Here is the input.
Amino acid sequence: MKQSSPQISDLTAAMIAVRNDRDRDAFALLFDHFAPRLKGFIMRTGTGSGQAEEIVQDVMLTVWRKADQFDPERAQVSAWVYQITRNRQIDVIRKENKPLPEELGEDPSAEPDASQILAVEQEAGQLKGALERLKPDQREMIEKAYLGELTHQEISTQTGLPLGTIKSRIRLGLEKLRHELKELR
Amino acid sequence: MTTITHHAPDALLAAYAGGSLPKPFALAVAAHISLCLDCRAAYEAHLATGGAVLESTSSEAVSEGLKSNVLDLLDAPVTEKPVYQRSGAFPGPVMEALKGKPPRWKSLGMGVRQSILSDGRDGSVRLLYIPPGRAVPDHSHNGLELTLVLQGSFSDETGRFGVGDLEVADQTLEHTPIADAGAPCICLAATDAPLRFNSFVPRLLQPLFRI
Ligand SMILES: [Zn+2]
Ligand SMILES: [Zn+2]
Here is the structure.
């Protein structure tokens, strides 16, 4: 491997190590990164510190237990953790299970394609950059939407974020997975 | 294999990803995503945005014992919630709403049947069974209505809807969906308000049938 080629991020590498090898040190690294961010994120919806930590605990345990569902060719770790977090918050606060789409059936490939992972990471990085460059009021609107505090009528279709490129990256990952599923049958 | 031509609007997918949709709509969107790779990709793009928001949120220090608590619990036994698989025309999320059992159909007359999955303050969601050539009773909407075709197809003033297609209707649309020739049309219909019929007689029947 060329020294100059970009590397998969530490977080993604840790998540893959948790998924493939049940690596506890890698999990501890994920905990150190996500737990304080999750607590801050959860408390922004008005949840108290104690209950927020209970949710953080549930989310981190789900990260460990459902690691086999993580597919780095489709999602960055933060996107995957975000989904688990919102589902758990809805379970706890509304006392109901959010209906979820079917899983795609088979585990993602154990040896993921590094170039596709890097592409997903790059798109996610650009998305984060775009979010940080938004005007404060526009950014606040986006944050509220993804904290579940706006109805679908209030969410404008024009977010001002470049979702097109990441969408096609994810689509590529899904196509590949579907292709692999077909070959299995 | 049919091609899906009517998709979930992006604002609806964003609201679903963000978790602000009432449960009846969330079920319809989850079922559509289960059938539609395009909307799954768009949904996952919204999760990526959620991930970016999570990454840029200011942190709060967690209590000292939390990490060791979590590490201690990694191998604790857990009772897994059952996962409902797709069965026939019904995608996983619909099977979950049916608790794994076949729908319990109730006749609405003229061969039209319904099976109510939930009906509460946050709206209602039901399965409708419409024989070829029959119409969903003429109705207008108080709010938003999502209709997902699971079997057969129907047509109304706005077009033709086949398996996997999602129709989004609101107050401004008065429509009469009619099942096309072929297999009976089965669809999932979610509303944030009870449907009301326009014609006099069905309106009288409304409390009886909870439509
Ligand atoms: Zn779609
Ligand atoms: Zn309607």
Notes: The pocket of zinc ion (ligand 2) is lined by residues B 139, 141, 145, 169, 175 (CB under 6 Å). Chain B touches chain A through 64 residues (CB under 8 Å).
